[in-house]
Amino acid sequence: MTIKSTFIWTSIHTAIKILSGIIMNKVIAVYLGPVGLAMIGQFQNFVAIVSSISNASIQTGILTQTAKFNNEHTQKIVWVNGLIINCFFALLTSIFIFIFANWLSKQIFFSINYINLIYILSFSLIFYGLNLYILAIINGLGNIKLYTIINMLISILTLILVSVLTIFFKFEGAILGIILTQSIVFIISYMMIYRHYKNSFFIFRLSLFDKSIFKTLLSYGLTSFLSGIIVAISSIVVRIIIVNNSSLENAGLWEAAIKIGFYFNMIFTLPISIFYLPKFSTLNMKKEFFILFKQAIVFILPIMFLFVIIFFIFKDFLINLLFSNKFLAITDFMIIILFAEILRVSISLFSNLLLSKKAFKEIIILEFLTTFLFVLYVYVFYDILGLFGLSLGYLIISFCMLFMYIYQVKRISF
């Protein structure tokens, strides 16, 4: 597939995912308000952390190694080792969450009344990891069409389940919907891949255990995990700083602004990672990367600026449509967030290259450094500059990230 055809397929998937997310956030915003949205964001950050631990974050490794090896036997060795890692870490994480459910409920929800939801989460984690495992293999095999169809079905199901449960059961319903989706989407994914690949992804033979591939997958996993956990923890810390210095409502406004930026970012970074990550794994010359980089930027940059212009013209209408009139305060700084996301889309090309070339240490250092700088900025300046100042800091840090990644790419060897 070319970048254009990949972009078309992933754009359909992204459009459905974003539309589903928008409708779901609209339901949450209407029924739960800014405070509810902030609490949902808190829980989602926690789920992101424990999910990363439960599947060892090895999906990127499975994807790149599957794309790298054309030999079916070697691919199966990659899959078996990935499955062993997945199941082992999922079991450990689930046991930990189950044992400490009481404490976790207090930390996340500030109450033990939601302990049953934590118990349910502990049982569903294995399915979340297995679903990511399936999608990583399909992407690595280059079956973008099937990958897109499965993801579209997942988005639609999540929308229906979370929205319906939120309407009928309010906050508890929203949380339960997020948790139950993990299990149901695995069943859908398995049914879809069985038609094409039968049970070839789930061959569990210890004879296929390979120490070298096992270590490689764990290296990818450690990088993805640390990157993910750094972002998730920083989001929680930033939210706590906002709450302590102003209100939970302001934390909800910031959550809404970041969600819009996230959806904007996803439109472009999703096709970039799906199309370019497998390609970058096969590159032997730095010159080839910059040719691909130029190709991508020329194609997506005008589209990104067009999106920003449209949002600027209709910002009041769009924010009211996406959330409710309680969130109109974010119009003051939303454009700054979107310009920061344009930079972060460009950064994703460099980060995917570093990941494909196993520059794990460099990625972790860059993620930690830039995230730490942003959290430090929030801690020092939020009380003075408020949410508008936060958005400026987000843009400044994004500029810093871009130059850091460019410098790092120039240093790596092919």
TrEMBL record:
Membrane topology according to the record: Multi-pass membrane protein
UniProt signal peptide: none
InterPro entries xrefs: Poly_Biosynth_Transport, Polysacc_synth
Keyword Glycosyltransferase in record: no
Keywords assigned by UniProt, alphabetized: Cell membrane, Membrane, Transmembrane, Transmembrane helix
First-listed, main subcellular location of the protein, grouped into a coarse class: membrane
Location relative to the cell: Cell membrane
This protein's record includes keyword Cell membrane: yes
Regions crossing the membrane: 78-101, 113-134, 146-169, 175-197, 217-242, 254-277, 289-313, 333-356, 363-382, 388-407
Coiled coil: none
Protein name: Lipid III flippase
Gene Ontology CC annotations of this record: plasma membrane
A matching Pfam family: Polysacc_synt
